[in-house]
Amino acid sequence: MKRGAVRKEKTAHRIVLERKMVTHHDVMTWNLDYCVGCQLGANVCPLDAITHVDGKLENGRMVVRQGVDIDPEKCVLCGMCAVMCPANAIEISVNGKPTNPVQEYETFPTLIESNEFNAEAFDWSRRDFVIDNCPTNVISYDEAAETLVVEDEHCIRCRQCEVASDGAFQVEQPWEGTVTLRRELCVAGCLACADICPTRALHINAAGELVLADYYCIKCGACMQICPIQAETEEYEVTFESQGHTHTRVHERITNAAVLPIWVERWRVKHTPVESSSWLDALMRIASDKAGQVEIDRKRALKRRDLLKALKGGHVLMDNE
Amino acid sequence: MPEDEKKKSTEHQFEEEEPRIGVYACHCGSNIASVLPPAEVAKYAESLPGVVVANDHHYMCSEPGQRMIQEDIKKHNLNRVVVSACTVAMHEPTFRSCISDVGLNPFMFEMANIREHDSWVHSHEKEAALLKAKELTAAAVAKVSYARPLDMFKVPVTKRALIIGGGIAGISAALDLADMKIETYLVEKTPSIGGRMAQLDKTFPTMDCSICIEAPKMVDVGKNPYIHLLTYAEVRKVDGYIGNFKVEVEQKPRYVDADSCTGCGLCVDVCPITVPNEFEDGMGPRKAIYVPMAQSVPVTHTIDMNACIKCYKCVEACGDLSAIDFAQEPEIIELDVGAIIVATGYDTWDPTPLEEYGFGEYENMLTMMEIERLHCAGGPTIGEFIRPSDGKIPASLALIQCVGSRDKRYHEYCSGFCCMYTIKNALLLKWLYPEMDITIFYIDLRTPGKTYEEFYERAREAGIHFIKGRPAEVLEDPVTKNLIVHAENVTLGTHVALEVEMVGLATAAIPSAGAADLGRVLTVANDGYGWFLESHPKLKPLDTPTEGIYLAGSAQGPKDIPQCVSQGSGAAGRASRVLMADEWEIDPIVAYIWPDRCLNAKGGKCTICYDVCPYGAVINKPGSGEPSQIIPAKCHGCGTCVAECPANAITQHHFTDGQVIAQIHSLLADNPEGKVLAFTCRWCSGMGADNAGTAHFEYPANTRIIMVMCAGRVDPDFVMEAFRLGAGAVLVSGCHPQDCHYISGRQYAGDRMERVAKQLTRLGISPERFRVESVSATEGAKWARIMQEMSGTLAELTIAKIKEENAQAHPKLARRLNRLKQVPGVAPVLRLSEEMRLQGIAGGGA
Ligand SMILES: Cc1cc2nc3c(=O)[nH]c(=O)nc-3n(C[C@H](O)[C@H](O)[C@H](O)COP(=O)(O)OP(=O)(O)OC[C@H]3O[C@@H](n4cnc5c(N)ncnc54)[C@H](O)[C@@H]3O)c2cc1C
Ligand code: SF4
Ligand code: SF4
Ligand code: SF4
């Protein structure tokens, strides 16, 4: 095998891509235990290197987890999927240092998200309750500092701690959007989405019923992937502007939203500013065009002379240009 | 060339003149004479019809030998000449020009090969060898009797050249042609010219810095007004013929506009995507937008679309230059050129399949090209020679030679330059790191260049260890990542287990990727290993069998830089012979359609000749009432259409049906049941038969060979006629189909002969009496084996049984072959043969 070629190692729990040149060495790891098979990575990947691996359902329950697979011959270890992964399942390091090339080169932004704990506002009797409720087990008690700490890079921002702590935890989620569950459209007896949902957003209650707690939803969309009633899509052309050019790309959109029992819509994501057409392209692939359009509209709006003119004193500004 | 002139040269309507033939048998020193007496061959030849004079000489090809022929031509008013000597590949051109110097048409000449096909392979059957020499001579006399004078075609010449491959060989050729003010296109498939030489550190034996001496030449190419550089481009289609090639080159999109890009590299700095750099053999990275190396010519950057994520950061960085253009698409560029030079070089073999060395598994196991990049100051580590596993300078190093070369499992041949570059790398590293312990494992050290042996001596004096023995296995210490080389020291007969910190493999040089496809496009054959095949290994090493296409450098087989440069200049010289001429003469051994015999002249809808012609040389208008027609300048003269034509409407000049039938009759005049008659092409298989001779692979002397240009020329009627005449066994042999010098001639021959085999079986001929084979130019041993086997078949079946089968098949064969008489030029041959039979003049000298 040629030096510098991407090597892949896959086990039940992880996929590791390693690319070793003599002066450059990158490693990318997918933690399959975290991965929910949401398809955000596959959707943003510009080189089609990621494919969905179906899970297995039996009697309406997930018996084999859904996930992803990577084609080492296509992947260039750019890091886009790692930025978008809602489950923080992907890690990259270059020459031994954790880094993300698309972020380092300002091709992708950093998503704005956080989780802050206000120890003063916390009712300490709820300590174990909060720790137990974290689906990713990233909250722990720091004996020395006598406070609760969050392993931030693995927090998926589900806000369960926020509710559990009665607001002592304040979580900012990167995504805005909606999740809709319509039980009446479900396949009878199916509870699969609750099995894949990484949070308590979709769960089975004590009575054995599927329940949606929408506040906890992180808009990953894994539920839509596992749902036996699959989304159907059509291709359409998207044009947008970036870096002084008009770009035209073919994207897909859902055509049967009305019959989907579970439907997640991503509208917008909070992020640091960045000027890059691959970011806009990626965003428009994974967010409903409403959301994509919001950003683009803002850009367009700034260029729209009628809008400028409509402002108080706008025509004066234009005349002076 | 004007249409009427073409006619004149192909359709000689000349008065039948009595053949006046001179026959000359050569001793070739003792090469022939030690096995059979040439004087007796000459004496026998005198008895043959049409022969006016016959003589023998020590060396027919020598000046006195040739003078003898020329004087006889004048004295005896000869109009045809036969020389019984060596192979046509060697001396046919010699004797053709010998006779044409005294006014005889050069095509009124035949050679009988009594050396490679006779004395060299039958030294233990002297009497049978003499008989064979006589019969081969008789067959040549029979063929030449029906020869017609032919004129060379003259074609105009486009004074432009195409060079494919921008390594040092291609660069040298381009600069020489430009010096002659010949407009030259240089097509290179990668983004920069330079080839392998650009990757090297220092060069043996003088140790000058490789890129320092090559870069100025690369720049000269880039600047030269006579050279048009087409990089990141590949030749897709070649049509036409010497002096008049039409070429389609695909310019791959670089997504960067060559006119606007200044090579500043700002785009590279902002590109987020890192991939391995091919130029560094994957040792170091490059970006998705890149130039392979700092010295790249041209400096135009290229976007690798397999890696680009279309972030447009480069577009931003490029700014007002606006050089980046994502809308670029592949473009076809059409070129008209008069000559083509192929200089596509070599690739290095990936030694992963050689599991015992663990390349790809062991981090500190490198190829020699990687070693080269690793100590090169322009390389990924800026010349620091470090172990990939831990970045430390290795204290010890083993270099293993002949990895995948001289190895029957991979590549049988010697890769030529590895001994020298291994010694070079050892010496360079010894100079850089005097403490480093360096050991070279070799099978043989081959240092046959000027001052090369002295170079090797220097390495010994420098304290480099040499161990004779090919390592059987290399193991890795999983903790230290050191490598333990296990070998047999052949000199001492001891086992060596040498632990070193790093190992370099001198891997085989292999034909560059795509060489076979390019061969197909150019209709130039590749040899059994994939290297481009030269026209003649000694006398035409730079030519290909396709006129107007030449070879330079490692494309033809591994060569070091001095050889590549010489060949580049040599090929430029060969090409300039054509390009400096106003007109070029081409061989008239082409096919010709008799208009009145063509089925289409009578309103037919036949497309057979058109379909089988590999060169698109046939104008075919089925149903129009117009006969098909062959464009002589496009016809390469394989004769496939001749054999395929259902109406016998096509002939091939110099290989007419009449001539071949005359050879068959002559060779089978005597004792046909005891003979193996072989039809072979003149290329691979013919050279394979010659190779059996050169290598002295003995086989039985009851074998007789008829050469045509291509197996595709062998008409089923030739085979049938041989059996009608009572042949013991018949062979049709050509190149391996993928190596056919006429692309598909061998393929058609194979399909056709399969049908013949079935028909013969139905007629009661034992299947082993008719064989179809493929022999390559290097498979002399195979040729000898086939001859032995077929000869053995005769003995096994017994002559009585063969005669019985023949008698049974004869009536049907005779009925079928009645039609031969209809073929123009064949009836007189049959008549004469019959007369001779009645008069008891056998072809053989029994
Ligand atoms: C490790 C190593 C060390 C060496 N050290 C030395 C040394 O010290 N001294 C020495 O004399 N020799 C040395 N050599 C040998 C040297 O590399 C060759 O002699 C020389 O580079 C061959 O030049 P070339 O032009 O024939 O082929 P190449 O350099 O291979 O050039 C061929 C060019 O053609 C291009 N090409 C291929 N196919 C096509 C196509 N279809 N269309 C268009 N372009 C095409 C290729 O991209 C390439 O640019 C060494 C070789 C190796 C492997
Ligand atoms: S409900 Fe929300 S968090 Fe749960 S799987 Fe669906 S999208 Fe993801
Ligand atoms: S558009 Fe492609 S080549 Fe340009 S900077 Fe981005 S990844 Fe690199
Ligand atoms: S098939 Fe062969 S002989 Fe016939 S026209 Fe074509 S090249 Fe010439």
Question: What would you say this structure looks like, in words?
Answer:
The complex is a heterodimer of chains A (about 325) and B (about 850). Chain A has about 325 residues and is α+β, with helices and mostly antiparallel strands. Chain A has 3 domains: about 5-105, 2-Layer Sandwich (Alpha-Beta Plaits); about 115-170 and about 300-320, 2-Layer Sandwich (Alpha-Beta Plaits); about 175-285, no CATH class. In chain A, about 25% of the residues lie in helices and about 30% in strands. Chain A has a 5-stranded antiparallel beta sheet with strand order 1-2-3-8-9. In chain A, α8 (about 275-285) packs antiparallel against α9 (about 290-305). Chain B has about 850 residues and is α/β, with parallel strands linked by helices. Chain B folds into 6 domains: about 20-150, Rossmann fold (3-Layer(aba) Sandwich); about 155-250 and about 330-345 and about 510-585, FAD/NAD(P)-binding domain, CATH 3.50.50.60; about 255-330, Alpha-Beta Plaits, CATH 3.30.70; about 350-505, FAD/NAD(P)-binding domain (3-Layer(bba) Sandwich); about 590-650, Alpha-Beta Plaits; about 655-845, Rossmann fold. In chain B, about 35% of the residues lie in helices and about 20% in strands. In chain B, the strands form 13 sheets. In chain B, strands 10-7-6-18-29 form a 5-stranded parallel beta sheet. Chain B has a 5-stranded parallel beta sheet with strand order 20-27-21-22-23. Chain B has a 4-stranded parallel beta sheet with strand order 2-1-3-4, sandwiched between helices. Chain B is globular, with a radius of gyration of 31 Å. The model of chain B is unreliable at about 1-15 (pLDDT under 50). At the A-B interface, α3 and α8 of A face β13 and α10 of B. The structure holds flavin-adenine dinucleotide and iron/sulfur cluster (3 copies). Flavin-adenine dinucleotide (FAD) binds near residues 190, 200, 559, 560 and 562 of chain B.
Describe the structure concisely.
Chain A is an alpha+beta fold and 321 residues long.
